[in-house]
Structures are given as structure tokens and as C-alpha cells.
Amino acid sequence: MYVSSRELAKWGYFHLKKGNLNGNQIVSNEIIDIATTVQSPNSLDVELPQNGYLWFVKDLPARKSEIGELVSKGSYQI
């Protein structure tokens, strides 16, 4: 996938605004919530990163987290 940093920033902003773009709800809040909350199976090793849909999600502390220890719970990154 080839994208610019500006396009990634717009994608992040779109998620931050819960799927709303210029006053229009493009994607439902529920879909954005699912994408940015943990969807990894419970059987996955707790030391591995937790994932939403297309996002790494910070839920429990994990040694192999993509996000890092200092980021607060509920944060996500692509």
C-alpha cells in the first residue's frame, strides 16, 4: 500500500472523529468502536500485541506491544 503521511493523518482523524467527516456520518460509530477496541482472541498469548481491525490497541501491558509501555490504556495506532 502506498499512502502519504497526509493520507494516514486523514485516516487517523477520521477514526478520532468516530467516522464523521465534515458533519456527515460516513461510517457508524459502532464500526469505529469495533475497529479501535481489542478483537484479538482470548487464547492469544498475553505478551503479544492486542489488535482491533487495522489498529494495534493498548489494553493490557504486554512485553511485545507495538505501542509501548507509556501509552495509556485505550490508545490505538496503525
SSE topology sketch:
Elements: H1 5-16, E1 20-21, E2 24-25, H2 29-35, E3 50-51, E4 56-57, E5 76-77
Antiparallel strand pairs: 1-2, 3-4, 4-5
Distance between the termini: 13 Å
Strand-pairing-aware structural class: alpha+beta
**Helix percentage range:** 10-25%
Number of strands: 5
Total of DSSP H or I helical runs spanning 4+ residues: 2
Strand content: 5-15%
Question: How would you sum up the major sheet?
Answer: 3 strands, antiparallel
Low-confidence stretches: none
- Mean pLDDT rating: 82
Q: In which order are the strands of the major sheet placed?
A: 3-4-5
Radius of gyration: 14 Å
Order of helices and strands: HEEHEEE
Shape: globular
Tell me what you see in this structure.
There is one protein chain. The strands form 2 sheets. This protein has a 3-stranded antiparallel beta sheet with strand order 3-4-5, with no helix packed on it. The protein has helices at residues 5-16, 29-35, and strands at 20-21, 24-25, 50-51, 56-57, 76-77. It starts with a helix and ends with a strand. The relative contact order is 0.15. The chain is globular, with a radius of gyration of 14 Å. With 78 residues, it is an alpha+beta fold.
Quick overview of this protein structure:
The protein is built from 2 helices and 5 strands, in the order H-E-E-H-E-E-E. With about 80 residues, the protein is of the alpha+beta class.
